[in-house]
Every structure is written in structure tokens, then in C-alpha cells.
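Progress against Task 2.4 (sequence-to-structure conversion) is shown through the following example record, which the project officer requested during the mid-term review.
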Amino acid sequence: MELLKYISLSIFTVLFLSTCHSSNKSKTTIGYITISDQLSVEDSAVVDWISDHKLFNIKVINISREPEKIKDVDAAWVHIPDQHVYDKWSTHLTELTELKKYYENGGKLFLSDFAALLPSALGIEPHKPKIRTVHIKDNGLFDERGLQSYRGHPVFNDLFGGGFIWDSYENQELPIIGYFDDDFPQSGKVVATGKSFVTVNENDRLMVEYQERNGKILSVGTFIYFSKGNRLKLHLEKFIENSLLYLVGKNIKEPITYWQKYDNKPREFNISTNSLKKSDEKLLKNLPETELIFKNNNPRNNFFDLAGRRALVMGKENGGIDELWVHPFRVLRDFQTGVVIENRVFWLNDLPVKIEIRPESLTRIYQTEYGKLKELIYPSLSRAGAIVHYEANISKPIKLMIKFRSELRWMWPYSENAPGDLYYGYDEGLNALHVKDVSGDFYCIIGADLEPNQHISGQYGDITWESNKFTKVKTDLNQVYHACLYDLTAKNNYVLNMAIVGTNEGKENALNDYRYLLSHPKKVYSTLTEYYRNLLETKLTIESPDEEFNKLWKWALVGTDRFFVKTPALGTALVAGFSTTERGWDGGHKINGRPGYGWYFGRDSEWSCFAIDDYGDFQLVKKQLEFLQKFQDISGKIFHEISTSGVVHFDAADATPLYIILAAHYLRASGDIDFITESWQHIKKAMDFLYSTDTDGDLLIENTNVGHGWVEGGKLWGANSTFYLSGLWAQALKDAAYIASQLEKEQLSEKYLSDAAQVVKILNTDFWNDSTRFFNYGKFSDGKFNPEKTVLPAVVMYYGLLDDEKVEFVLDDYAGNGFSSDWGVRILSSESPLFNPSGYHYGSVWPLFTGWTALAEYQYGNSTQGFMHIMNNLNIKNDWALGYVEEVLDGAVYKPSGVCPHQCWSETNILHPAITGMIGWKPDAPAKSAELSPRFPLHWNKVTINNLHVDKTVFQLQMERTKTSTQYEFKLTGGPKILINFTPEIATGMIIDEAKLNGKIIEVCSHTKRGLPAEPISFLLKDKVEIVLHHHSGVGMLPLMPQPAPGDSSKGYRIIDANLDGKKYQVTLQGKSGSAGIFEMMIFDQFVKSAEGAQIKSLSDKGILQLEVPFHRSGQKFVSTSVIVEFE
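C-alpha cells generated for the chain above:
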């Protein structure tokens, strides 16, 4: 027996030692090169890191004494942190010679900080780099520093092509060694430039790669310090790991690209391809249409956009295309069409025009001297381009001049010069202009199905028509201007189709899409139309007595879905907002590369996806979650923004908790436990990151050194932990607990729930301000609070985390004129000393804030005010970008005040509060159940909700109401049966006399909480279920629905609060001083005994009492009054 034990132990020992030896052999041996046996503090820190790394072995080599040992390592690292150490190195010529020999014999060298001067000193690089000093401030994450590749490099594996690696704990002056301004290395290739906050510093070339036969050098001239305090140490270490592995040929996942020197001038090239076959779809007859349309016979040159998953077309209603983007770059701009009559061009945007805007297209009908000319613009749903169709209703030939310019403007934060020299050529076979960048990846083809009469292309600032020919205007811009003259005649049916295609996937993809668009223009249109039809037929829609509401609701679905954008190499996800580069910050560039907010955002997508989950498009939400996870930081943090050019920023604190909340929301809606199981590693990593941000142990995650959330700057900026962020943390903990429980991780679930309870307590106690009767905006690092009243507590109310008795005061404030305008809700009160009506974060109205407020109001029973706020957002669709909702509006005058005329979360903050609040929809797919708590406005006597989705179950809800009864019908329309827990809102004072479920009498709980029965009516929906409530009495205010015209200020009629005391119903109202307003009240079957503070105007057969309410004159703009209606 002892012998067997001995043999077993011996075998185990051999196997263990063999495994260790094998593991040790698989490691990369790094030689850390010194010129002294005495290691500095910095040297020791580097050596310790290498020693502890699982992928590396370390050999410290004093090259002065043991130069031969350098041959025994896989890669050698020379780290010279400052000028003083470099001066010592520069006196050791022998050692430098040994390094050069090592490199020339195939050695791999990593040179950091002042060691970036060594290639020049070794004679490898003829052009010596320069030394500059950068001033770095310790101001949170707003002065992080790092490096950015061109279009990827393996040194940025898991850092998404570039990363921040330095965030100091103190103000510093640091040297950077590189090639600046117009300077480039002569022998090396530029791997990366500098990077700071939201800027790629293209003129700071700080990382250079050299290669001679098998030898390779990576030189990094800055930001590598291991003994200094650095909040981004994890990222620095990952960057160094990547660099060392790349040198030895390991872990090469990213493409290898370099920054190059260009003249930034267009160059012509020859191109010829096979001609197009004539399409039998050319005339575009009998096109299908969706039911949605805006017509305008007198357009005001407002913004429009059209988009598929790839192409985005933007411009002004009256004529032309301002910009067409196929991410990640702008394909063309300033597309103009004119009718040529003799020696003059009549540009279409100057002619009388009627427009028709549909989800799928824009139609313009121009009145010309020769008759009508129709222009139809539409994108492809999935291909990288769009079509412009011209059709002349005339009896004689007409000449059209079309011109545009193309510069392949790569999206911010890259500059206009980043793509380098342009190459262009005219293709006689395709009747098309080709434009490409040096690599040939960015490739555009723009042309028509007619051969032009004349054409011209080149480096021009403009092209005009003079003396019956094109005249060119010179420019030094790196752009190609192109113009063509087409003859529309009876021979070609007076029809012209133009295709505009661009892609970052090269020539063949561009050719395929171009040929497809011009060969199948009707199919392209039909596919897009069919997509929108399907969206409106299968996702949640509302049929109410208000036809305008119903129509605009569908436009909100269209307006939301349009923001899902595919960028090759990145993926498909939501972008935030559409606008041309005409508006907003230019990114510090000569030519703006920021099309509104047309790139990917973390928190924007998360807030928007709640609504998309709500209306039943689970696949798109899943794609968004996959996208968030794909670009999750190595720390676990979720990104704030990713430009479609691929540059990632992690400067928001709220994107990470919102990711957790969205994952749980998706699970409850879809039941997709398999995906959540696969995602758990990301969810857990995000939770660990959030816990790590509580640096002071007060149980609250922090904004400091993590990011903004909510306010990004301005007068409200500054808090260690905002109330908003702390509220998201509480909900994230609850939702993480829910997910963990679903995955049977009960111990972790209990921890999260316990922590959530503590955070909720802090929210309701520490943040509550008795003197202001409001929740404080934020907590400072010294434990004090900023007492400013803001809209942000509405988010925490939406989650139902706050005490009812406190919320009552806050909701009264939100309902009043301080926060609410006739077009939405301000971030802070107009009575605040910080208020500025155009202040982005301190006075303007955001439809997002309006939606948050509505969510809070519905959650706590203020459904009348909640509906008004939904309508505030919905009505915006009629006034500027027809069919869509602005990003931001002025806080004092009804006018746009933001960058984007069409913003994603402005659309979803119609849908989300209406579905979650008004319909009261809360699915729980894992439990095969759903809560339904409708709070329909009292002036809707009937309503149908189509396509309520939970997992694979789909059903319809119908409601019909009279003065004495309310009937609900539930009809399963798809999928398996579902358990419904039904708690409809009961009007104040209403008595339920009898309730029936499928004809059988049932009990309904008489006790209500926030206007809902305290106990649900529960039933299993297998086919149809009918619930009928017979009732008497009851009272409630009808929502106000102001409809301001552009340029108006608020009339200011508001319903603040209402209470029933016996037979007396008291309502607190606001209005403009010295005015009188009309208010309406649903009294059902009751009779009015008296009305105090108002004059009765009428009482309808439906039980609607109309009151005229006077508001006394005062020195204040708005005043409050009370109305008491007593019933018999």
C-alpha cells in the first residue's frame, strides 16, 4: 500500500513539474534592459509587473556587463522614463551598438518614453523625433491621454483600435517624444497618434514601428509609467501586453494599419466597367406605399431625413440633398438639380414645390416652365446607397443639370485629412463617377441609367453653367466636384434614375450595390415599403378616438426604428440623432465630420431600447445588448459613444447601470434566458466595475473620475454622486439580483438585493431636503448636497423607489409652470437662478425629460399630467422635421434649440411612457405572465391596443367605457397562453357595483394604491377574456393638450393636483396672470351641486363638465387657484 502511494505521488510530481515546465516554455521571455545593476523605483515597478504576468517571463539584463544575454530573450524592452536617465544612456555607445546588432539580427525591441529617441541615436531612423511637453490636469476623466491607431493595429487588441492609458491623480507636465505637425519619421511607420478626451491628435505621432528583415522595433514616446499614480493602469498594462506579444508575432487579431503622409489632393485614375443593362423597372410604376404621409404645399425648407440600415440621406424640404452618409463616411454633399433653359440654370430648390413625406421616401413635385417635374428620393433598406428618381410630366425635351461634391469625410473624431488623397475617375460604361481613398476600402460610385450629354469632374470649389458649358471654380480643398447634364426626352420616357452608393468594404461591394440599385429600383422601393408595413402591422399600435394620436404614434415607431444603423466591422446598433454637419460643434476641424449625433451611444441606446422592448422588437434589443457587450471596456465599463469611424469613449457613468437594467428589461420581455446566460460574464463584470467606483464606502457609485450622468457640463455640473446615478444604481442592484436569481445564483442575488435596500433608504433619507421639499441634485465628496431642484428624480420615481408622501411634492412642482412648458419639461425650474432657456443642461426642454416626467407621473398615479406630457412630445412631429421629434427645444419659446431635428430618445419618450405608463404594460416572460394596469385618459371612451408582446405570446386589448360601465376584452392573437394580472385605473371616488369575468361575477378589491386596485384580477388568457365593470360616481380631470405654434411662449394652463373629500372635488390649477382658461372634468353619472372658483360652461351627454377658470392679476407671470366642484 505504501508503495502504491509512493508511485502515485511520484507520477503526480512528474506531471506537475512537466505542466509547469510546459507552461513556462509557452511564456514569452522579456529581457528588461538596463545599464546598471541598481534598479530605479520605476524599473522595479516594470520588472514586478512583468514577473507577475501570466504570459511573460522576465530576464533583467545589464547590457553593460552581459550583452550576450540579449540573444536569449524573445523581446527586449528599454524603458527610459525621463531626460536624466536618457542622458546616462546616451553615454553608453557600446550598449547602443549591441541593441542595434540585436535588431539587425532579427531581435524585437520595445522602446518606451525617452527610449523613443534611440532609433535615431542608433542610426536606424535618420530623422530625429522632437520632445514636447504636455500639461495634464487632474480634472476627472476630462484630461485622459492615450494613443489612437489609423484603422486598427494589434497593439490595441481589446482596446478597440485606440485607448486611453494615462489618467493622473495630479496635475502634471509630461514629455512626449514623437513627430509633430507635418513631420513624419523617415524609416518608420506611424502606428498611433496621441489621443485626449474626445480628440484624436493626428499631428502628434507618438508610436512608430520599424522593421528590418526579421527585426522589429516598437517605439512609444509617452505615457508609460509604472511607479506613478494612474487611474488607467489596467489599460496601460493591456497596451504593453499587446505590444510585447505583437513584437513576437502573437495575438494578432486586429488589422495592421498605419498613419501615412499625404498631399491631401485628388488624383484622377482611369476606370472602365461593363455597362448596365436597361432595367424594366426604370419607370417606377404602381409603387406600393405605407399608409403614413405628410403633405405640404408650402414647405418651409425644414430638415428631412431618410434612412435604411446603411445609407442616411439628409437635407431641406424644398430641394437637393445636403449630405448623404454611408457610415463611416460622407459619400456626397451639396447635391443640387436644376433645369437648364438656354444659358441659364433654374435650381429646383428655388422653384415652387409641393412635398410628400413618407417613411420610405420624399417626393417633391416642382412646377417648371415646361410643366411638372417629380423628384423621388429613397434609400435602400440594406444596401449601401440611395436612389434619386426624376420624372417629367411634359411634352418636350428638358435638360437637367446635377452637381455635387465628394470628399469621403470620415466621421469625427478623425479630421478631414485622415482619409488622405482622393482618387476619382469617370466610368463611361456605368455613366458614373468613382471616388475612393488610397486603400480602396472607402469606395463610392455615383451615376445614372442615362448617358449624360456632358460631364466634368475635378478638384473644384464649384461648377457653374455658362455659355452652354460647364465652368469650373478652383479650390485647394481635398474634394472632387462633379456635374452632369442629362436630356430627358420621349425616348427615355422623360425619366432618369440616379444611384448614389458608398461603402468602406471596397470596390466590388460598391459595384454590386450600384448595379443592383439601378437594375431593380422598384424592388428597392418595395422592399423598404414592405419593411415599414410589417413594422406597423406586427408591433404595438394604438387605435384611439384621436386619429391624429394614432397616426403620430405610428410615425414614432418609424422614427425609432430608423436609428438602427449597420457599420461594417462595428455592427448594427442604435445611433442617437440625425442632423447634417451644418449644426453643432465641428469637432475642432476645418470641415465638420459630425452629422448631428449620428453615431453609437451607450446611454442613449439603453434609454431607447426600453421602448423597443415595450413595442415588441426583441431582436433589435438583443442586437443592441450584443453591441454594448462587444465594446465593453476591459474594466467592465460600458461605452458612452462610438463614432462610426470606430473610436470609442468611456466617459459616462450611467451607461453601465443602464446596461444592467436593460438586460433585465429584455429578459422580462423576451424570456431569452439563453442569451442572458451567455451574457452573464458581461453583466457580472459590469457590476464589479460599478462596485469599484464607490471609493468612499458610502454605498453609492460615483461620478467623480467615472463620468457624467446626467449633466455633462454647465452650471449644474459637479457632484461626487448625483441622485440620478444613485437611483440607477439602486435599480441596477435590484435587476442584477433578478437576473442572478433567474440564473440560480441565489447567494449573489441576495447580496444585490440587500445592497439595493440600503441604497433605496439613502435615496429617501440622505438625499431628501425638508426645506425645499425635493430631492437634492447630488452629493459632494465632503458629504454636503447640492439642493437644486431638477427633473432627474423623475427617473428614480419611474422605478417606484421613492416614498409616496415625498413624491407628491415633487410631482406638484413638475406639473407647474416652473418645470412644464406648453411643449415639454425643463431640466430645472424657470424660477431657478441657474435657468437659461437655451442652456443645454440648465434650462432647455428635452423630450427625453418630458418622457421621464410622464413615466414618473404614471408610476405614482398622476395619469392626467402624464398624458399631457406624452402629447407634448407627440405634437412636435407636426412642426419642423415632419413626422419626427427634435432633440432639444428652447425653455421659453417654442423653437428648436439643439443639434438634431430628429433624435432617437425623443421618439422613444413618446412610446415608453405610453406603453409602460398609460397602457401599464409589464411583462414577465420567465414567469409566463404579465401585469397590465391601463390608465387611459378619461376622454377616450374606447381604445384598442394591438400586438402586446411577451416572449412568443401576442395579444390585443380593447376597452370601451360609458358613464356607468367599462368593458375590457383580451384576445390572444399569437403564441402560447399567458397569465394576466390586471389592475385597471379606477377613477377617484368611483364605486364598482359589479364585476364580471366572462359573464361570471368576481370580486374587485375596493382599496386602491396610486389609483390602481391593490389586488389584481388574475386570469389565464387562452383565447378571449371579457371583463365588465359596472360602476357609479367617479371624477377626474381631462388632460390639457396645448398645441403651441412655432415661436409661441407658454399659455401656462396647468393641472397641479386634485383631491376628493366626500362630495367635494378640489383641483389646484395654474394659469397666466389675468387670464381665463377652459378646463374639463369627467364626472360620469354624477350631478353638480355647485362650482366654486369657476364658471360652468357645459355638461355633455358623456359626462364631461367644462369649466371656465379665471386667474387673478398678479405681479407674477403665472398664478395658482383652486376650484371646488361639489356633487349632489
